[in-house]
């Protein structure tokens, strides 16, 4: 996906300045995209040049003037056309997986340290996504716009659940199981749901784990942490 479409998506619901866009960008679309402020400003300038966004100069007292960017009709049409396009799955780009593929070059302890760091980061990301999901749960009836934003959030939650479970699996395979005192692990919870014991081969579990995770049945009112599935996973 081009960064320009991610910017159009972020601006579509809320016109804002370039500065505010940079601040809010990774929050509004962080479940599926991220970019540096240099990349955002460069893509924003190109969108303005091509007529997909317009900029209104806003004068401010005792502060530098700013531009307020809004998606134009041309930008709206381009977004609609892009949404209708069928695209191929983009391969995952992961420094961690590249490192792990040649992990035999370093001591196991080095890999475990790296995996532990990633594991903690994914757990924190999962926690932050669920905090956002709780805000959706407070709304009795989500608008159609919010329903689609919530679907993107759910994808982010599922993605983090998968990474957390995989980190647990990898650390266990390398001889450092997740500390039981920290609570039931994601891997343990998913293994229970598939009837798989913790001692089974790591070459088999992922397909069974993924198939056990059902999508929410009632989108507008579904709890952010599925009590029967992923609420006990963190």
Q: What's this entry about, in short?
A:
By secondary structure, this protein is mainly alpha-helical. The chain has nine helices and three strands. Helix 6 runs antiparallel to helix 7 and helix 7 packs across helix 8.
Structure description:
It is a single chain. With 234 residues, this protein is mainly alpha-helical. It folds into two domains: 3-84, Orthogonal Bundle (Arc Repressor Mutant, subunit A), CATH 1.10.10.10; 95-211, no CATH class. The protein has helices at residues 3-12, 18-28, 37-50, 73-84, 95-101, 108-137, 144-173, 186-194, 205-211, and strands spanning 16-17, 53-58, 66-71. A three-stranded antiparallel β-sheet has the order 1-3-2. Strand 2 (53-58) and strand 3 (66-71) form a beta hairpin. Helix 7 packs across helix 8 (186-194). The protein starts with a helix and ends in a 23-residue tail after the last helix.
């Amino acid at each position: 996906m081009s960064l320009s479409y991610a910017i159009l998506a972020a601006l579509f619901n809320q016109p804002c300045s370039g500065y505010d866009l940079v601040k809010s960008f990774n929050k509004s679309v962080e479940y599926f995209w991220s970019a540096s402020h240099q990349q955002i400003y460069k893509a924003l300038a190109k969108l303005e040049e091509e007529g997909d966004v317009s900029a209104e100069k806003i004068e401010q007292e005792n502060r530098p003037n700013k531009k307020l960017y809004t998606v134009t009709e041309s930008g709206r049409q381009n977004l609609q056309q892009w949404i209708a396009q069928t695209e191929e799955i983009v391969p995952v780009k992961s420094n961690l997986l590249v490192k792990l593929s040649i992990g035999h070059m370093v001591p196991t302890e080095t890999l475990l340290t790296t995996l532990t760091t990633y594991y903690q980061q994914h757990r924190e990301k999962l926690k932050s996504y669920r905090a956002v999901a709780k805000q959706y749960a407070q709304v009795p009836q989500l608008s159609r716009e919010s329903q689609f934003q919530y679907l993107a959030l759910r994808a982010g939650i599922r993605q983090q659940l998968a990474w957390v479970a995989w980190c647990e699996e990898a650390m266990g395979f390398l001889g450092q199981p997740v500390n039981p005192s920290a609570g039931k692990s994601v891997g343990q919870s998913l293994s229970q749901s598939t009837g798989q014991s913790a001692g089974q081969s790591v070459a088999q579990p992922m397909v069974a784990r993924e198939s056990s995770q059902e999508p929410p049945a009632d989108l507008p009112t579904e709890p952010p942490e599925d009590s029967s599935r992923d609420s006990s996973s963190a």
